[in-house]
Amino acid sequence: DTQLTQSPSTLSASVGDRVTITCRASQTVSSNLNWYQQKPGKAPKVLIYAASSLEAGVPSRFSASGSGTEFTLTISSLQPEDFATYFCQQSYTLPYTFGRGTRLDVK
Amino acid sequence: QLQLQESGPGLVKPSETLSLTCTVSGDSITSSRHYWGWARQSPGEALEWIGSIHYRGNTYYNPSLESRVTISVDTSKNQFFLEMRSMTVADTARYFCARLGGLAMRFDPWGPGILTTVSA
Predict the structure, then answer these.
(1) Contact B56, B80 (CB under 8 A)
(2) CB distance B46–A98 less than 8 Å?
(3) By CB distance 3.0 to 4.6 Å, which of A31, A73, B23, B46 could disulfide with A51?
């Protein structure tokens, strides 16, 4: 299975901060990497697909890049509604796998 | 607007079979461009993909669960199903259904999830 390692596991930040989350794959996933946001008790919501494409309706402060084994998700200026858990998911090889998540909380 | 909703028991006894239903509204499950899948999330653990199905019957399962899982579809009801046998305490989790498709086979949208506890 392709393991996805996210760092950091927890990130404390303030409104207006720029934050970056990393996802590293144990083997190449090409550009088949998606990013999700999940709030407590809610279903995940896709933010970014295919490594760098912004899902429709997602604010432009979210961006992502990478290919192969290393990927980043950046939030350019944190808003109050962005405090949540973020995780990556690969669909290059079966079984599809997810990262363990990065919890973004208020500093 | 496409919506998915899981239904099923909130409590299952060890060794029993879990049966969950995902009802799709706002789109036909017979879309050729999409798969329909199940994932679960145990407390403190990463999300785990369980398996996916195409309305024509093609199914893919996570090898770690394949021996205990069956996913099926009923196009007449616009529903798909998860059956997981020989449940143990370790299977306690929130179970989600989702549509899969598009570039990079993303999960979108998801149902709200259903918490299933395995306990005697």
Answers:
(1) no
(2) yes
(3) A31
